[in-house]
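Hi W., the coenzyme A complex you wanted:
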Amino acid sequence: MQSLRYRYDGERGWDLKWMISSITVERQLIDHPPIVVRSLSACEWQLKRDLRLAALQDSPWAFASSYDLEIHRSEDERRAWPRDGVYFAAFHERQAVGIAGSWMRAGEPQVTHLISMWVAPDVRGAGIARLLTEAVVGWAREREATRLELEVAAGNDAAMCAYLRAGFVVTKRTPSTSCRTVLELAL
Ligand SMILES: CC(C)(COP(=O)(O)OP(=O)(O)OC[C@H]1O[C@@H](n2cnc3c(N)ncnc32)[C@H](O)[C@@H]1OP(=O)(O)O)[C@@H](O)C(=O)NCCC(=O)NCCS
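Structure:
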């Protein structure tokens, strides 16, 4: 755990001790989580904005949106988005390191959509997407949805692996763009 802490505290690059103990550390992170995942309230719109813009800058190919489009959103829009939905953030020692959202389309109460999944590059592989997915699944179940859907861009192998490991399956549903695949999880 100590060597992982060094990474978070700003040392850049790979720490040899961290690499050797990474498998143990991953399990510790999940079993004794220093990671806290919680929903963001409307008044935390600036944090929501910062995480979302960081995601769009870091992984523009992963999302059906763009930094240039979202940088211009107003405060009101940021507070309200996602409508009929929620954003969760993952924190390590009070620092936000990941985000994922979910929402429901009007007139489609059985289906929830997982959106905006992103984990900061230097903490990937430590189970944070898994924790964020679990939070979204819990939120969807509370709403008595029977299905959680999401879209993955072609070539996004990390995301595809993470979702398949979480129990999602590939569907033949029509995605928002031709270069994406719709996955679903039965709830
Ligand atoms: C995809 C992403 C969210 C995964 O986050 P993460 O915190 O590193 O994922 P986790 O550590 O929770 O891993 C969850 C599972 O996926 C697997 N996984 C994660 N990254 C992987 C990779 N690059 N290659 C293979 N498997 C991978 C893990 O092995 C893990 O399986 P396990 O529970 O059996 O060990 C992260 O890489 C990311 O933010 N990518 C850029 C944005 C993005 O693609 N978002 C998704 C949009 S649909």
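The chain is about 35% helix and 25% strand.

W.
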